[in-house]
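Dear H.,

Thanks for agreeing to be a second pair of eyes. The structure we're designing against is below in C-alpha coordinate form, covering all 431 positions.
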Protein backbone atom coordinates (compact mmCIF):
# COMPACT_ATOMS: atom_id res chain seq x y z
CA UNK A 1 0.00 0.00 0.00
CA UNK A 2 1.30 3.44 -0.95
CA UNK A 3 0.11 6.91 -0.10
CA UNK A 4 -0.84 8.49 -3.40
CA UNK A 5 -1.78 12.10 -4.13
CA UNK A 6 -3.67 12.90 -7.30
CA UNK A 7 -3.54 16.52 -8.43
CA UNK A 8 -6.46 17.29 -10.74
CA UNK A 9 -9.72 15.40 -10.22
CA UNK A 10 -11.11 15.44 -13.75
CA UNK A 11 -11.86 12.34 -15.82
CA UNK A 12 -8.37 10.92 -15.64
CA UNK A 13 -7.53 12.03 -12.10
CA UNK A 14 -10.72 10.89 -10.44
CA UNK A 15 -10.81 7.55 -12.24
CA UNK A 16 -7.14 6.98 -11.42
CA UNK A 17 -7.66 7.95 -7.78
CA UNK A 18 -10.74 5.78 -7.32
CA UNK A 19 -9.07 2.80 -9.02
CA UNK A 20 -5.85 3.13 -7.01
CA UNK A 21 -7.99 3.19 -3.85
CA UNK A 22 -9.90 0.14 -5.09
CA UNK A 23 -6.68 -1.85 -5.45
CA UNK A 24 -5.73 -0.97 -1.88
CA UNK A 25 -3.81 2.29 -1.89
CA UNK A 26 -4.45 5.27 0.34
CA UNK A 27 -5.46 8.10 -2.01
CA UNK A 28 -5.95 11.84 -1.66
CA UNK A 29 -7.57 13.52 -4.70
CA UNK A 30 -6.94 17.24 -5.01
CA UNK A 31 -8.61 19.82 -7.21
CA UNK A 32 -8.33 23.59 -6.98
CA UNK A 33 -11.99 23.88 -8.00
CA UNK A 34 -13.64 23.98 -4.55
CA UNK A 35 -17.04 23.35 -6.12
CA UNK A 36 -15.79 20.02 -7.46
CA UNK A 37 -14.37 19.06 -4.08
CA UNK A 38 -17.69 19.91 -2.41
CA UNK A 39 -19.56 17.66 -4.85
CA UNK A 40 -17.08 14.84 -4.19
CA UNK A 41 -17.24 15.27 -0.44
CA UNK A 42 -21.01 15.27 -0.65
CA UNK A 43 -20.93 11.83 -2.26
CA UNK A 44 -21.48 12.91 -5.89
CA UNK A 45 -19.21 13.12 -8.89
CA UNK A 46 -18.89 16.18 -11.14
CA UNK A 47 -19.44 14.33 -14.48
CA UNK A 48 -20.96 11.12 -15.77
CA UNK A 49 -18.87 7.99 -16.08
CA UNK A 50 -20.48 4.55 -15.74
CA UNK A 51 -19.69 2.91 -12.39
CA UNK A 52 -17.54 5.74 -11.08
CA UNK A 53 -19.95 7.18 -8.54
CA UNK A 54 -20.32 3.76 -6.87
CA UNK A 55 -16.56 3.18 -6.89
CA UNK A 56 -15.87 6.58 -5.34
CA UNK A 57 -18.53 6.03 -2.69
CA UNK A 58 -17.29 2.56 -1.81
CA UNK A 59 -13.69 3.68 -1.36
CA UNK A 60 -14.62 6.87 0.47
CA UNK A 61 -16.58 4.85 2.96
CA UNK A 62 -13.70 2.42 3.33
CA UNK A 63 -11.48 5.40 4.21
CA UNK A 64 -9.10 4.83 1.28
CA UNK A 65 -10.19 7.85 -0.76
CA UNK A 66 -10.20 11.44 0.48
CA UNK A 67 -10.44 14.86 -1.13
CA UNK A 68 -8.86 18.25 -0.68
CA UNK A 69 -8.69 21.58 -2.48
CA UNK A 70 -5.02 22.08 -1.53
CA UNK A 71 -2.04 20.59 -3.35
CA UNK A 72 -0.01 21.12 -0.19
CA UNK A 73 -2.09 18.47 1.62
CA UNK A 74 -1.02 15.89 -0.95
CA UNK A 75 2.64 16.95 -0.88
CA UNK A 76 2.68 16.83 2.93
CA UNK A 77 1.19 13.37 3.22
CA UNK A 78 1.76 11.41 -0.02
CA UNK A 79 5.01 9.87 -1.18
CA UNK A 80 3.82 9.58 -4.78
CA UNK A 81 2.09 12.43 -6.56
CA UNK A 82 0.37 12.00 -9.90
CA UNK A 83 -0.17 15.16 -11.93
CA UNK A 84 -3.51 14.80 -13.73
CA UNK A 85 -4.39 18.42 -14.52
CA UNK A 86 -5.70 19.56 -17.88
CA UNK A 87 -3.48 20.44 -20.82
CA UNK A 88 -5.97 22.25 -23.09
CA UNK A 89 -4.95 23.46 -26.55
CA UNK A 90 -3.85 27.05 -27.01
CA UNK A 91 -4.98 29.13 -29.99
CA UNK A 92 -2.41 27.61 -32.39
CA UNK A 93 -2.90 24.00 -31.27
CA UNK A 94 0.05 23.87 -28.88
CA UNK A 95 -0.68 22.35 -25.44
CA UNK A 96 -1.15 24.86 -22.64
CA UNK A 97 1.13 23.58 -19.89
CA UNK A 98 0.57 26.37 -17.38
CA UNK A 99 -1.45 24.17 -15.00
CA UNK A 100 1.37 21.59 -15.01
CA UNK A 101 3.93 24.28 -14.27
CA UNK A 102 1.83 25.67 -11.44
CA UNK A 103 1.42 22.25 -9.85
CA UNK A 104 5.12 21.45 -10.26
CA UNK A 105 5.98 24.72 -8.48
CA UNK A 106 3.55 24.02 -5.66
CA UNK A 107 4.97 20.55 -5.19
CA UNK A 108 8.53 21.92 -5.17
CA UNK A 109 7.75 24.62 -2.64
CA UNK A 110 6.12 22.19 -0.21
CA UNK A 111 8.43 19.17 -0.44
CA UNK A 112 10.16 18.27 2.81
CA UNK A 113 11.15 14.67 2.05
CA UNK A 114 11.47 12.27 -0.91
CA UNK A 115 8.65 12.55 -3.43
CA UNK A 116 8.01 10.75 -6.71
CA UNK A 117 6.27 13.12 -9.11
CA UNK A 118 4.50 11.35 -11.94
CA UNK A 119 3.04 13.09 -14.99
CA UNK A 120 -0.13 11.37 -16.09
CA UNK A 121 -1.69 14.24 -18.02
CA UNK A 122 -1.03 13.94 -21.74
CA UNK A 123 1.91 16.22 -22.42
CA UNK A 124 4.31 16.96 -25.27
CA UNK A 125 7.66 15.20 -25.18
CA UNK A 126 10.23 16.92 -22.94
CA UNK A 127 7.62 18.13 -20.43
CA UNK A 128 9.19 15.80 -17.84
CA UNK A 129 12.44 17.71 -18.25
CA UNK A 130 10.65 20.99 -17.71
CA UNK A 131 8.95 19.69 -14.59
CA UNK A 132 12.36 18.68 -13.28
CA UNK A 133 13.81 22.07 -14.00
CA UNK A 134 10.90 23.82 -12.26
CA UNK A 135 11.35 21.61 -9.21
CA UNK A 136 15.09 22.21 -9.19
CA UNK A 137 14.56 25.98 -9.30
CA UNK A 138 11.66 26.14 -6.86
CA UNK A 139 12.40 23.60 -4.18
CA UNK A 140 12.95 25.12 -0.76
CA UNK A 141 14.68 22.17 0.89
CA UNK A 142 17.39 20.01 -0.51
CA UNK A 143 15.34 16.82 -0.66
CA UNK A 144 15.59 13.91 -3.04
CA UNK A 145 12.89 13.46 -5.63
CA UNK A 146 12.17 11.69 -8.91
CA UNK A 147 10.11 12.65 -11.92
CA UNK A 148 8.42 9.95 -14.00
CA UNK A 149 5.95 9.67 -16.84
CA UNK A 150 3.04 7.25 -16.70
CA UNK A 151 0.60 8.05 -19.52
CA UNK A 152 -3.01 6.95 -19.26
CA UNK A 153 -4.79 5.07 -22.03
CA UNK A 154 -8.32 4.80 -20.62
CA UNK A 155 -11.33 5.71 -22.70
CA UNK A 156 -14.25 7.72 -21.42
CA UNK A 157 -17.33 5.58 -21.01
CA UNK A 158 -15.30 2.49 -20.12
CA UNK A 159 -12.71 4.21 -17.98
CA UNK A 160 -12.80 1.92 -14.94
CA UNK A 161 -12.63 -1.25 -16.99
CA UNK A 162 -9.79 0.20 -19.07
CA UNK A 163 -7.86 1.21 -15.97
CA UNK A 164 -8.20 -2.21 -14.40
CA UNK A 165 -7.53 -4.15 -17.63
CA UNK A 166 -5.03 -2.10 -19.64
CA UNK A 167 -3.28 -3.50 -22.72
CA UNK A 168 -0.05 -2.20 -21.21
CA UNK A 169 1.30 0.06 -18.49
CA UNK A 170 3.98 2.48 -19.60
CA UNK A 171 6.43 3.86 -17.07
CA UNK A 172 9.05 6.38 -18.09
CA UNK A 173 11.64 6.62 -15.34
CA UNK A 174 15.14 7.82 -14.59
CA UNK A 175 15.92 5.90 -11.43
CA UNK A 176 15.59 2.41 -10.03
CA UNK A 177 13.74 3.80 -7.06
CA UNK A 178 11.02 5.40 -9.19
CA UNK A 179 10.68 2.22 -11.28
CA UNK A 180 10.34 0.10 -8.14
CA UNK A 181 7.64 2.30 -6.62
CA UNK A 182 5.58 2.44 -9.81
CA UNK A 183 5.84 -1.30 -10.39
CA UNK A 184 4.68 -1.84 -6.83
CA UNK A 185 1.73 0.51 -7.20
CA UNK A 186 0.53 -1.34 -10.29
CA UNK A 187 1.33 -4.79 -8.93
CA UNK A 188 -2.35 -5.85 -8.52
CA UNK A 189 -3.08 -5.00 -12.16
CA UNK A 190 -2.16 -7.71 -14.58
CA UNK A 191 -0.65 -6.15 -17.69
CA UNK A 192 2.72 -5.96 -19.39
CA UNK A 193 4.85 -3.11 -18.06
CA UNK A 194 6.90 -1.18 -20.59
CA UNK A 195 9.78 0.60 -18.89
CA UNK A 196 11.39 3.40 -20.87
CA UNK A 197 12.98 6.78 -20.37
CA UNK A 198 10.66 9.73 -19.80
CA UNK A 199 10.79 11.04 -23.38
CA UNK A 200 9.80 7.69 -24.89
CA UNK A 201 6.89 7.33 -22.47
CA UNK A 202 5.66 10.80 -23.41
CA UNK A 203 5.87 10.00 -27.12
CA UNK A 204 4.15 6.62 -26.70
CA UNK A 205 1.02 8.47 -25.61
CA UNK A 206 0.97 11.07 -28.39
CA UNK A 207 1.94 8.54 -31.05
CA UNK A 208 -0.74 6.08 -29.91
CA UNK A 209 -3.55 8.62 -30.00
CA UNK A 210 -2.34 10.02 -33.32
CA UNK A 211 -2.15 6.54 -34.80
CA UNK A 212 -5.70 5.73 -33.69
CA UNK A 213 -6.94 9.05 -35.10
CA UNK A 214 -5.13 8.21 -38.34
CA UNK A 215 -6.93 4.87 -38.51
CA UNK A 216 -10.28 6.66 -38.25
CA UNK A 217 -9.42 9.25 -40.89
CA UNK A 218 -8.09 6.51 -43.14
CA UNK A 219 -11.32 4.53 -43.05
CA UNK A 220 -13.31 7.73 -43.45
CA UNK A 221 -11.36 8.59 -46.60
CA UNK A 222 -11.95 5.03 -47.84
CA UNK A 223 -15.66 5.47 -47.05
CA UNK A 224 -15.86 8.30 -49.57
CA UNK A 225 -14.44 6.04 -52.27
CA UNK A 226 -16.81 3.24 -51.21
CA UNK A 227 -19.82 5.46 -51.52
CA UNK A 228 -18.85 6.71 -54.95
CA UNK A 229 -18.10 3.25 -56.28
CA UNK A 230 -20.91 1.07 -54.93
CA UNK A 231 -18.89 -0.59 -52.14
CA UNK A 232 -19.93 -0.80 -48.49
CA UNK A 233 -17.31 0.56 -46.08
CA UNK A 234 -18.59 -1.65 -43.26
CA UNK A 235 -17.79 -4.73 -45.31
CA UNK A 236 -14.50 -3.27 -46.47
CA UNK A 237 -13.47 -2.56 -42.85
CA UNK A 238 -14.50 -6.05 -41.81
CA UNK A 239 -12.47 -7.58 -44.60
CA UNK A 240 -9.44 -5.46 -43.70
CA UNK A 241 -9.79 -6.06 -39.98
CA UNK A 242 -9.27 -9.80 -40.22
CA UNK A 243 -5.66 -9.09 -41.10
CA UNK A 244 -4.04 -9.17 -37.66
CA UNK A 245 -1.54 -6.53 -38.71
CA UNK A 246 -4.43 -4.12 -39.29
CA UNK A 247 -6.88 -5.21 -36.57
CA UNK A 248 -10.63 -4.78 -36.41
CA UNK A 249 -10.84 -1.84 -34.05
CA UNK A 250 -11.02 1.85 -34.88
CA UNK A 251 -12.21 1.21 -38.39
CA UNK A 252 -15.74 2.49 -37.89
CA UNK A 253 -16.40 5.08 -40.57
CA UNK A 254 -18.71 7.99 -39.87
CA UNK A 255 -18.59 11.68 -39.09
CA UNK A 256 -15.14 11.52 -37.55
CA UNK A 257 -13.61 11.68 -34.11
CA UNK A 258 -14.15 14.22 -31.36
CA UNK A 259 -13.62 14.34 -27.62
CA UNK A 260 -11.11 15.94 -25.34
CA UNK A 261 -8.18 13.81 -26.49
CA UNK A 262 -7.76 13.01 -30.18
CA UNK A 263 -8.25 16.52 -31.63
CA UNK A 264 -6.10 18.12 -28.92
CA UNK A 265 -3.37 15.49 -28.91
CA UNK A 266 -3.09 15.50 -32.68
CA UNK A 267 -2.57 19.23 -32.85
CA UNK A 268 -0.18 19.15 -29.90
CA UNK A 269 1.86 16.39 -31.56
CA UNK A 270 1.98 18.35 -34.82
CA UNK A 271 3.16 21.42 -32.88
CA UNK A 272 5.86 19.69 -30.88
CA UNK A 273 7.10 18.01 -34.06
CA UNK A 274 7.28 21.45 -35.67
CA UNK A 275 9.25 22.76 -32.69
CA UNK A 276 11.67 19.89 -33.13
CA UNK A 277 12.04 20.77 -36.81
CA UNK A 278 9.72 18.22 -38.43
CA UNK A 279 6.63 19.03 -40.49
CA UNK A 280 4.20 16.18 -39.64
CA UNK A 281 2.09 16.53 -42.80
CA UNK A 282 0.57 13.07 -42.42
CA UNK A 283 -1.14 14.16 -39.21
CA UNK A 284 -2.25 17.46 -40.72
CA UNK A 285 -4.10 15.44 -43.34
CA UNK A 286 -5.68 13.31 -40.59
CA UNK A 287 -7.09 16.51 -39.07
CA UNK A 288 -8.29 17.78 -42.42
CA UNK A 289 -10.13 14.57 -43.32
CA UNK A 290 -11.77 14.59 -39.90
CA UNK A 291 -13.13 18.09 -40.44
CA UNK A 292 -14.28 17.25 -43.96
CA UNK A 293 -16.49 14.43 -42.64
CA UNK A 294 -18.68 16.93 -40.78
CA UNK A 295 -19.13 18.95 -43.96
CA UNK A 296 -19.85 15.82 -45.92
CA UNK A 297 -22.61 14.85 -43.48
CA UNK A 298 -24.26 18.26 -43.91
CA UNK A 299 -23.85 18.09 -47.69
CA UNK A 300 -25.56 14.69 -47.70
CA UNK A 301 -28.39 16.09 -45.61
CA UNK A 302 -28.75 18.88 -48.12
CA UNK A 303 -28.83 16.41 -51.01
CA UNK A 304 -31.57 14.46 -49.25
CA UNK A 305 -33.70 17.51 -48.43
CA UNK A 306 -32.85 19.64 -51.48
CA UNK A 307 -32.93 22.77 -49.32
CA UNK A 308 -32.16 23.01 -45.64
CA UNK A 309 -33.89 26.32 -45.12
CA UNK A 310 -36.72 26.04 -42.58
CA UNK A 311 -36.45 22.26 -42.50
CA UNK A 312 -36.77 20.61 -39.11
CA UNK A 313 -33.94 18.20 -38.45
CA UNK A 314 -34.02 15.84 -35.50
CA UNK A 315 -30.51 15.25 -34.19
CA UNK A 316 -30.11 11.95 -32.36
CA UNK A 317 -27.07 12.13 -30.07
CA UNK A 318 -24.91 15.07 -29.00
CA UNK A 319 -22.03 13.70 -26.89
CA UNK A 320 -18.82 12.99 -28.80
CA UNK A 321 -19.45 9.27 -28.34
CA UNK A 322 -21.94 7.07 -26.45
CA UNK A 323 -21.91 6.45 -22.68
CA UNK A 324 -20.58 9.85 -21.77
CA UNK A 325 -22.02 13.33 -21.29
CA UNK A 326 -18.83 14.86 -22.65
CA UNK A 327 -19.41 17.51 -25.29
CA UNK A 328 -15.80 18.55 -25.79
CA UNK A 329 -15.03 18.82 -29.54
CA UNK A 330 -18.18 16.81 -30.25
CA UNK A 331 -18.91 16.52 -33.99
CA UNK A 332 -22.53 17.42 -33.13
CA UNK A 333 -21.49 21.01 -32.45
CA UNK A 334 -19.95 21.55 -35.91
CA UNK A 335 -22.79 19.71 -37.62
CA UNK A 336 -25.55 21.62 -35.84
CA UNK A 337 -23.81 24.93 -36.51
CA UNK A 338 -23.45 24.12 -40.20
CA UNK A 339 -27.08 23.00 -40.51
CA UNK A 340 -28.30 26.13 -38.76
CA UNK A 341 -26.17 28.30 -40.98
CA UNK A 342 -28.13 26.87 -43.90
CA UNK A 343 -31.38 27.84 -42.17
CA UNK A 344 -32.38 24.45 -40.69
CA UNK A 345 -34.24 24.22 -37.44
CA UNK A 346 -32.86 21.69 -34.93
CA UNK A 347 -34.60 19.52 -32.38
CA UNK A 348 -31.99 17.49 -30.51
CA UNK A 349 -32.08 14.59 -28.12
CA UNK A 350 -29.29 12.91 -26.17
CA UNK A 351 -29.69 10.48 -23.26
CA UNK A 352 -26.97 12.17 -21.14
CA UNK A 353 -25.40 15.22 -22.72
CA UNK A 354 -28.28 17.70 -23.02
CA UNK A 355 -27.38 19.69 -19.91
CA UNK A 356 -23.83 20.23 -21.12
CA UNK A 357 -25.01 20.84 -24.69
CA UNK A 358 -27.35 23.60 -23.51
CA UNK A 359 -24.36 25.55 -22.21
CA UNK A 360 -22.72 25.43 -25.64
CA UNK A 361 -25.83 25.65 -27.83
CA UNK A 362 -28.51 27.41 -25.79
CA UNK A 363 -30.77 28.30 -28.70
CA UNK A 364 -31.71 25.00 -30.28
CA UNK A 365 -34.67 22.91 -29.20
CA UNK A 366 -34.05 19.99 -26.84
CA UNK A 367 -36.61 17.19 -26.92
CA UNK A 368 -37.57 15.01 -23.97
CA UNK A 369 -37.17 11.83 -26.04
CA UNK A 370 -36.33 10.77 -29.61
CA UNK A 371 -40.03 10.59 -30.51
CA UNK A 372 -40.60 14.20 -29.59
CA UNK A 373 -37.49 15.20 -31.56
CA UNK A 374 -38.75 13.32 -34.62
CA UNK A 375 -42.26 14.76 -34.53
CA UNK A 376 -42.88 16.74 -37.75
CA UNK A 377 -39.18 16.44 -38.64
CA UNK A 378 -38.09 16.50 -42.27
CA UNK A 379 -35.16 14.23 -41.45
CA UNK A 380 -33.30 12.52 -38.62
CA UNK A 381 -29.54 12.85 -38.37
CA UNK A 382 -27.89 10.22 -36.18
CA UNK A 383 -24.76 11.77 -34.74
CA UNK A 384 -23.90 9.58 -31.73
CA UNK A 385 -24.44 5.81 -31.73
CA UNK A 386 -26.15 5.44 -28.36
CA UNK A 387 -27.50 1.89 -27.91
CA UNK A 388 -31.01 3.14 -27.32
CA UNK A 389 -31.21 4.54 -30.85
CA UNK A 390 -30.99 0.98 -32.13
CA UNK A 391 -33.98 -0.10 -30.06
CA UNK A 392 -36.52 2.60 -30.93
CA UNK A 393 -39.93 1.98 -32.46
CA UNK A 394 -39.03 3.22 -35.94
CA UNK A 395 -42.50 2.46 -37.28
CA UNK A 396 -43.87 4.95 -34.80
CA UNK A 397 -41.09 7.39 -35.66
CA UNK A 398 -41.85 7.14 -39.37
CA UNK A 399 -45.48 8.04 -38.69
CA UNK A 400 -44.48 11.03 -36.56
CA UNK A 401 -42.18 12.53 -39.18
CA UNK A 402 -43.10 14.89 -41.98
CA UNK A 403 -40.83 13.00 -44.38
CA UNK A 404 -39.25 9.65 -43.43
CA UNK A 405 -35.57 10.38 -44.03
CA UNK A 406 -32.69 9.09 -41.91
CA UNK A 407 -29.07 10.08 -42.35
CA UNK A 408 -27.08 7.73 -40.14
CA UNK A 409 -23.73 9.39 -39.40
CA UNK A 410 -22.52 6.31 -37.49
CA UNK A 411 -23.83 3.47 -39.66
CA UNK A 412 -25.60 2.02 -36.64
CA UNK A 413 -28.94 1.02 -38.18
CA UNK A 414 -29.65 -1.78 -40.64
CA UNK A 415 -30.25 -0.13 -44.04
CA UNK A 416 -32.49 -2.95 -45.32
CA UNK A 417 -34.66 -2.92 -42.23
CA UNK A 418 -35.05 0.85 -42.39
CA UNK A 419 -35.98 0.75 -46.05
CA UNK A 420 -38.52 -1.99 -45.36
CA UNK A 421 -40.10 0.30 -42.78
CA UNK A 422 -40.51 2.93 -45.46
CA UNK A 423 -37.54 5.18 -44.71
CA UNK A 424 -35.21 6.81 -47.15
CA UNK A 425 -32.01 5.72 -45.42
CA UNK A 426 -28.42 6.86 -46.04
CA UNK A 427 -25.32 5.93 -44.12
CA UNK A 428 -21.69 7.01 -44.47
CA UNK A 429 -19.69 5.15 -47.10
CA UNK A 430 -22.45 2.79 -48.11
CA UNK A 431 -25.31 3.00 -50.57
C1 LIG B 1 -9.05 8.17 -26.45
C2 LIG B 1 -8.20 6.89 -26.55
O1 LIG B 1 -8.96 5.83 -27.13
C3 LIG B 1 -7.71 6.46 -25.17
O2 LIG B 1 -6.85 5.34 -25.30
C4 LIG B 1 -6.95 7.63 -24.54
O3 LIG B 1 -6.53 7.32 -23.22
C5 LIG B 1 -7.83 8.85 -24.47
O4 LIG B 1 -8.29 9.19 -25.80
C6 LIG B 1 -7.02 9.97 -23.88
O5 LIG B 1 -6.05 10.39 -24.51
O6 LIG B 1 -7.27 10.36 -22.73
P1 LIG B 1 -11.59 8.72 -25.80
O7 LIG B 1 -11.32 10.10 -26.29
O8 LIG B 1 -12.29 8.53 -24.51
O9 LIG B 1 -10.21 7.88 -25.69
O10 LIG B 1 -12.52 8.04 -26.89
P2 LIG B 1 -12.44 6.89 -28.00
O11 LIG B 1 -13.33 5.80 -27.60
O12 LIG B 1 -11.06 6.55 -28.35
O13 LIG B 1 -13.14 7.67 -29.22
C7 LIG B 1 -12.60 8.87 -29.76
C8 LIG B 1 -13.41 9.35 -30.93
O14 LIG B 1 -13.19 8.54 -32.07
C9 LIG B 1 -14.92 9.35 -30.72
O15 LIG B 1 -15.45 10.57 -31.21
C10 LIG B 1 -15.41 8.18 -31.54
O16 LIG B 1 -16.71 8.36 -32.01
C11 LIG B 1 -14.42 8.19 -32.68
N1 LIG B 1 -14.24 6.87 -33.34
C12 LIG B 1 -13.66 5.84 -32.66
C13 LIG B 1 -14.63 6.71 -34.66
O17 LIG B 1 -15.14 7.64 -35.32
N2 LIG B 1 -14.43 5.48 -35.26
C14 LIG B 1 -13.86 4.45 -34.62
O18 LIG B 1 -13.70 3.38 -35.23
C15 LIG B 1 -13.47 4.62 -33.29
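And this is the sequence the design step returned. I haven't edited it by hand at all.
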Amino acid sequence: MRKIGIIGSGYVGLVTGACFAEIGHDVLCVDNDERKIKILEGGGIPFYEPGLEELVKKNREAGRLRFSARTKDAVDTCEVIFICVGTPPKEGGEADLSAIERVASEIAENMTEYRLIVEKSTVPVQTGRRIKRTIELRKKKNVEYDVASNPEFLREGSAIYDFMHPDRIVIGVESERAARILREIYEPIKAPIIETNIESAEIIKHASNSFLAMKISFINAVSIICERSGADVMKVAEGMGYDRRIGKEFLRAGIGFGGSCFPKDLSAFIKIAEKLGYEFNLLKEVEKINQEMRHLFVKKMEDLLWNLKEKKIAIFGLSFKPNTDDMRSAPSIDIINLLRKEGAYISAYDPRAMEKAKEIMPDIEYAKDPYEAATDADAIGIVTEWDEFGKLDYKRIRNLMRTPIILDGRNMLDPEEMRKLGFIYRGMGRG
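Two observations from my side: The first helix runs from residue 11 to 22. The chain has two domains: 3-196, 212-426.

Warmly,
E.
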